[in-house]
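Hi, here's the filled form for the chain we discussed.

Project: internal
Contact: R.S.
Residues: 293
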Amino acid sequence: MRLLLLPFSLLLLAGCNESSSDSFHGSRSAAPPPVAMESDMAYSKAASEPAPTASNNPTSQSYLAYRYNYGFDLPAKSVAATAKSHAKICQDAGPGKCQLLSSSTNDTNNDYVSANLSLRAEPAWLETFIGQIQTSVSEQDGRMTSNSVSAEDLTRSILDTDARLKAQTTLRDRLQGLLATRDAELPDLLALERELARVQSEIESATTTLAVLRQRVTMSQVDINYRSQSVAVSRSAFAPIAAALKSFFGELSQGLAGVIRFLAFILPWVIFVILPGLFLLRWIWRRRKKKSV
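And the returned structure, exactly as it came back:
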């Protein structure tokens, strides 16, 4: 029994070592360059510089996930419609070019409206898209107020995951070969099947992780913020005066109603209590005055 397991263990260790040493020499996709655009204001230095490379080694490649942020100011009445039209451009392009992640509009009052779009776009298509939305914003008398780009280096994560995937794939193939021989006892076969199931689970997990990482590299994250332009005198500044004028007659009627209620309450006391009391006090005072004379 031990003589059977010894070569099996040696085969597993040799397979892991060979696959780990060869995994870093696989093919690697090129990182997308930042999108170059024209705007009403100077772009940040990061947006205009080309994507960095890992080294002069032709087999070495950096995997960078780019994230772009844009801000636009528009007339309040155009914010929601403009954001909606930009979201439709993304949806019409299809998931291979653009994926709409989120869309929101905040309309607190008629003077301040804001909207946000978050999407993932293919770099070549993104360049055209940014030109389109800049044109539409200019047609609405709006302007770009902010622009920034950042990059996250996913090189190590992708290479490590790819190496682990290749090692586990090689190990799975060796386990399947050992299982196919079926010259071991039942406990050994069950152990092989359990190990094969575990390795297959790790392969599926690594495959999913690698696909997600590569998608972040091949499609850039884009966040677009829209807000209404500030005006010198907002209509909301006169809102308290308009509200006061609107409620003037209502407040006046309520005040008159309060006076009437007060008179209705106090009049019986004046007629039946206060006036008779005053006459009684006056009669007593005169009577005492006559006696003193």
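Let me know if anything looks off before we file it.
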